[in-house]
Specification:
It is a single chain. The chain is globular, with a radius of gyration of 20 Å. It has a domain at 120-338: Neutral Protease Domain 2 (Neutral Protease, domain 2). The chain contains nine helices and nine strands. It is α/β, with parallel strands linked by helices. A four-stranded mixed beta sheet has the order 3-5-7-6, with helices on one face. A three-stranded mixed beta sheet has the order 2-1-4, covered by helices on one side. A hairpin with a 4-residue loop joins strand 6 (160-162) and strand 7. Helix content is 43%, strand content 10%. It binds calcium ion (4 copies) and zinc ion. Residues 43, 47, 182, 221, 224, 230, 235-236, 238 line the site of one calcium ion (CA).
Length: 342
C-alpha cells in the first residue's frame, strides 16, 4: 500500500513538474521580475476579526472570513513564476505548486495554493524585518538564505522545523497550519535558532528546547505585531487553535502568563516550560520596544550551544550591554529576575 501509493505520488509529481516546467518555459515573469502580489491572512482571521466563533468547516471558504483576506505585495521572487525567491522557497508535493506567469498569486483558503502564498509572504517579510534590524549588514546574518518550506506534507495537526535538512514543514490537521501566520512564524523561530549555530540545531537539553519553544512563540507574536497588529497580541496562533481549544480566546499558548522559574517548570513539556521564557522576552519587548528587544534577543543566540535558561539570559543581558548601554542591560536583567531565571 505504501509503496504503491508512493509510486503513484511520484508519477503524478513527475508529470506535474514536467507540465510546470513546460508551462514555465512557455511563459514566466522573467529575470528581474521580482515583485508580484498575493492574497493572505494577516496574521489570521480570529486575531484580526476578534471573532472567536470562526471554525475550520473542513477548509471551506465561507462569508465570515471574507474580511480577513488581504492583498499584499510579494517581493524577492526569482522570476520563475513559482513561489521561489531570495528568502523563501516553497516546495509542495500535494496539490499544484502555485505558478503565475505574471506573479499574481490570489487564492482562497480552500485552495491548497493559499498556504503556499502565506508561507512565502510571511517568511520573506520576517527576513526583511530581521535585516531591517541590521542583521546581514552591521550585524551577522540570521537565516539569510532561501528557506526551504514544504506545505501540506502531514495529516497530523503539527508542523515542525527540521534542522538537519533546514526544512520547515506544515501539516493540514484541523485548520491547515500554514493558514495561520503565527504557526509559520513559530516554525521560522526554530529555523532561525538552528541557523545561528552550526553544525547542529539549537540545543539538546530540556532547558534549551524549552527556550526554543518559548522563543518560537515570542517570534510569532513579535513579528505578527509589527506587520499586522491585533488587539490581543500575546495570544499565539488564534486561528489554528480553534480546532483544539474549547475556551476563548482561542490560543495555542500565550506569552503573557505569570509563570516563574523553577516552580512552573513542567518536566514533561518543553512547550509549557517555554512559556516562562516567552514571558520574559515579552516583558523585555514591552519595556524596550520591538526594535531593541528583537535585536538584542537575536544577537544573544549567537555562539550559544545547548544553553540553560540562566546561560542564555546572561547572554541576552550581555547583548543589551554591547549593542546599547548599561541602562538597557539593567532593564533586560530585571525582566529575567522577575521570572526567577536570573
Ligand atoms: Ca486551506
Ligand atoms: Ca534556514
Ligand atoms: Ca492545524
Ligand atoms: Ca495572535
Ligand atoms: Zn515549536
Amino acid at each position: 500500500m505504501k509503496t504503491a501509493r508512493r509510486t503513484t505520488v511520484l508519477a503524478v509529481l513527475a508529470a506535474a513538474i514536467l507540465v510546470a516546467a513546460t508551462t514555465a518555459f512557455a511563459a514566466k515573469p522573467g529575470p528581474g521580475t521580482s515583485t508580484g502580489s498575493g492574497t493572505v491572512f494577516a496574521p489570521n482571521p480570529v486575531a484580526e476579526l476578534q471573532n472567536q466563533s470562526l471554525t475550520d468547516q473542513k477548509d471551506a471558504d465561507y462569508a465570515a472570513l471574507a474580511p480577513a483576506y488581504h492583498r499584499v505585495v510579494l517581493t524577492n521572487l526569482d522570476g520563475s513564476g513559482f513561489l521561489r525567491g531570495d528568502w523563501a522557497n516553497i516546495l509542495s508535493e500535494t496539490g499544484n505548486p502555485a505558478y503565475s506567469p505574471t506573479n499574481e498569486f490570489h487564492y482562497r483558503r480552500d485552495d491548497d495554493r493559499f498556504e503556499q502564498v502565506m508561507a512565502y509572504y510571511w517568511v520573506t517579510e520576517a527576513q526583511k524585518y530581521i535585516q531591517s534590524l541590521g542583521f546581514g549588514s552591521r550585524l551577522r546574518p540570521v537565516n539569510m538564505e532561501s528557506q526551504d518550506i514544504r506545505i501540506n506534507q502531514y495529516g497530523a495537526d503539527n508542523s515542525f522545523s527540521w534542522d538537519k535538512k533546514d526544512m520547515m514543514k506544515f501539516g493540514k490537521g484541523g485548520v491547515d497550519d500554514a493558514e495561520d501566520a503565527e504557526v509559520i512564524l513559530h516554525e521560522l523561530g526554530h529555523a532561525i535558532q538552528d541557523s545561528q549555530q552550526s553544525p547542529f540545531g539549537y540545543g539538546f537539553g530540556f532547558e534549551a528546547r524549552s527556550i526554543g519553544e518559548g522563543f518560537a512563540d515570542y517570534w510569532a507574536v513579535t513579528v505578527a505585531d509589527v506587520l499586522a497588529p491585533t488587539p490581543d497580541p500575546a495570544c499565539v496562533a488564534d486561528w489554528d487553535s480553534v480546532s483544539y481549544t474549547s475556551t476563548t480566546p482561542h490560543c495555542l499558548r500565550r506569552v503573557d502568563l505569570n509563570l516563574h522559574y523553577p516552580e512552573n517548570v513542567n518536566p514533561n513539556s518543553v512547550h509549557s516550560t517555554g512559556r516562562i521564557w516567552s514571558r520574559a522576552l515579552w516583558d523585555i519587548r514591552n519595556a524596550l520596544g520591538h526594535v531593541k528587544a528583537d535585536t538584542l534577543i537575536l544577537q544573544a543566540h549567537f555562539g550559544q550551544r545547548d544553553p540553560s535558561m540562566r546561560q542564555l539570559a546572561q547572554s541576552t543581558v550581555a547583548a543589551a550591554q554591547s549593542l546599547y548601554n548599561t541602562a538597557t542591560a539593567n532593564t533586560v536583567r530585571a525582566q529575567f529576575e522577575a521570572r526567577g531565571i536570573l
